[in-house]
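Incident log, entry 3
Record: non-specific serine/threonine protein kinase (361 residues)
Problem: checksum mismatch between cached and fresh output.
Input:
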Amino acid sequence: MACFKLENVEDLYEIGDVLGKGHFGTVRQVREKATDSLYAGKFVKIRKSRSSRLGQERESVEREVEILQLLQHPNIMSLKEVFECKAEVVLILELISGGELFDFVAEKDILTEAEAIEFMKQILLGLSYMHSKNIAHFDLKPENIMLQGKDVPHPNIKLIDFGLARRLQEGEEYKSLCGTPQYIAPEIVNYEPLTVAADMWGIGVITYILLSGTSPFQGETDAETMNNIMAVNYEFDQKHFSQTSAMGKDFIEKLLVKNYRERMTAEECLIHPWIKPLNKKQVAHRSRSSINMKNFKKFNARRKWKVSYNMVWACNRMCRMKLLCKNAVKDEEALRQCESDQEDIDTKPASLIRRRLSSSS
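Fresh output:
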């Protein structure tokens, strides 16, 4: 069971600047008053009723909290504690300040495969730990692979955002159509029962992009992308993979397999010769090979633009929804409840009211 504290988060933490915003909440830097330690506070608005159009379902938040409380690993974002008030849950999370891995890589002029492998190894260690507990992430993509800090010789990888993650119970069937199109596995597109192997397909896509600077299945539309995924329609174009080792390509090929039972597991990935060379010759091949930085920088710039565009589109859509709710006729009371998920602000501290108002502005 997820453990929630019923105390007022502002009694224990000083609420700071906004670090990011999502569909259902805001992430702010928070300072623990007792220790002066900095954390990230994820403020999630909870739906008051099934008819509500704003906020996240409580069941979904509870599931994310339960999963984070189970995961204690150096390569996975950690959860300190959770607070609950009337219409909001606040997750106090480890503050991860190094930015996205792909942004860090894009700042470099050159990166050898050996250096890229060190990042992939950390991702796989985190995944292997998750999968050993029958937990699948189901949303592996560059935005969810962060650095704890980047001003160090060997940055530490952190997997974040467990909103779509699931603990898969034996004997239970789980299906989902969620995820980002270019990273999802064929069984997601087909709406088939899912396993942790869906994450390994995502690892194959991420590795392909990291080494070449191109996306293996990206089409002009989501439909085209999904058709490419179902056909496993990709290739190692010499133009993009001229600097890639044969072992690197083999690693990808053993992950981008339509039959999930035939994909490498995270444990098998960790002992693949590309990750763990068997001899000096393999070590030399890794060191001589490098990632296609020219292509990678272009890919990352397009990716960042698309993320920014989607955020603006989502914000505009939310604003339109709010206007529609406010202008709805009075006899459509049930519909207008989409804006009624506010707490009774008369009973709340002034600082909380100010924070709510600034969050919605």
